[in-house]
Amino acid sequence: MTTYATEPRLGTDRTALYVEVQQFYARQVRLLDDLRAAEFAATFTEDGVFAQSPGIPQVRGREAIAAALLAAHTRRFGTEPVRCRHWHNMLRVDPGPDGTLVTHYYTLVMVSRPWDPAPVIAPSSVVEDVLVYEDGELRTRGRRITPDHHSF
User: Fold this and answer.
1) Does the reported pTM lie above 0.85?
2) Residue 84: DSSP 8-state
3) Chain-centre distance for alpha carbon 35
4) Contact partners, residue 32, CB within 8 Å, separation at least 6
């Protein structure tokens, strides 16, 4: 049975909590950048929600998240050899009313191609996550991504 903590494991030590969340994202984004879809999806709760962009239906559950990640990559790049790097910055971590952690951050995606030494930076987005402790580990319960070109 999955258990959710009602209080962050690190209590009131906000600096340690911030570092823990940063480390969680460092692990999660490496899986994303390496296109290890099932492992990336495992960083979400079993019923996690992933809303990758306005106009694209949100998905629920690890299997659907993994499939959506691979479909988005194929939709954007086809079989073109690319390396994506997601850069998160300006992270804010706020305690939620129900023991969750609500995070907001900016993300840039850098796309490199083997024949071009200059990466393309696109898109730029704002991300809002709801994180929970599941069996002692941070997991993403919900993620909403809003690309900047959708926020005008």
Assistant:
1) yes
2) E
3) 13
4) 40, 69, 84, 86
The string of pLDDT tens digits covering residues 48-99 is: 999 998 889 999 999 999 999 999 999 999 999 999 999 999 999 999 888 8
The identity of residue 4, as a single letter, is Y
Cα–Cα distance for residue pair 53/119, rounded to 1 Å: 22
**19 — phi, psi (to 5°)?**
-65, -40
Q: Please state, in angstroms and as integers, the Cα–Cα distance from residue 119 to each residue in 82, 85, 89, 131, 152, following that order.
A: 10, 10, 18, 31, 25
> How many Cβ atoms are within 10 Å of 101's Cβ, its own excluded?
20
Quick check: 32 and 86 in contact, CB under 8 A?
yes
d(CA 131, CA 123): 23
Is the distance from CB of 34 to CB of 25 less than 8 angstroms? no
Phi, psi (rounded to 5 degrees) for 109:
-110, 120
Q: Return the bridge partners of 50, or none.
A: 59, 143
Bridge partners (DSSP) listed for residue 102: 94, 130
> Under DSSP, is residue 150 helix (H, G, I), strand (E, B) or coil?
helix
Q: For residue 32, give both structure tokens.
A: 């994303």
